[in-house]
Structures are given as C-alpha cells and as structure tokens.
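Encode chain A's predicted structure.
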Amino acid sequence: MISRSNPDSLPRKLAKFSGIGLANTALHTGIVVLLVEILHAHSTMANTIAFFVANIFSYWANSRWNFKTPNSLQQYGRFFAVSIFGLAITIMTSSLAAYAGWHYLIGLALVFVALPTFTFLLHYRWTFKR
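Encoded structure for chain A:
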C-alpha cells in the first residue's frame, strides 16, 4: 500500500510558502527592472512599488493556494504587519552583521535562513489561523 502525505501537512505548507516566496521574489525583481530600465524610475520608487505589488500577490497566493482561506482586509492587515516585521528583522540582521564586521553576504545568508521560517510560522499561527 502506498501512503500519500497529507496535502495540508506543515512540511507541505512550508514548501508551498517557499515556492510562493520564490515567485514573489521574481515578481519583485521583474517590476524593479521594468520600472528602472524601461520607464527610468528611481530605484527607491521602483522598489517601493514592487514591494507593494509583490506583497499583495504573496498574500493572495498564500491565502488562496496554501492556507485556503477567504481574503479579507483584516487578514491582509495581519499579513502586512508580518511583512513589515520581517523587514525590520532584515534591517536588524544586516545591521548586526555590518556592526560585527562580517561580510554583507553573511548577513544576507542569515536573513535567507531565518526570515522565511520565522514569517511562515507567524503566518501559520496568526495571519491564516482558522
């Protein structure tokens, strides 16, 4: 007998969350490149616009495909709060690495390891909790 894993298991949700995160990163990058290279926007403005578009996409994809919850403004508010908290952690981690005199890629690696797991758990336990 072949056993199938539960499609709603925590490891599967984490894998879907990671896949959405990769798609989200590609979307963010594509928007920045388009706005800067084609429309000659300032990089700060391009990244700001890309952040909001990618954040809305990530919320929609996670609520629909991963956590299977209906969209709501209250839930998006939680999602956005976790996103801003994640940004603060990113800034603090990279600042700590710079203060310690580490190469910036070490700080980036710490962000890439810790942040997705941390934000996933916050979304799982708070944003999309049923």
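The chain has a mean pLDDT of 92.
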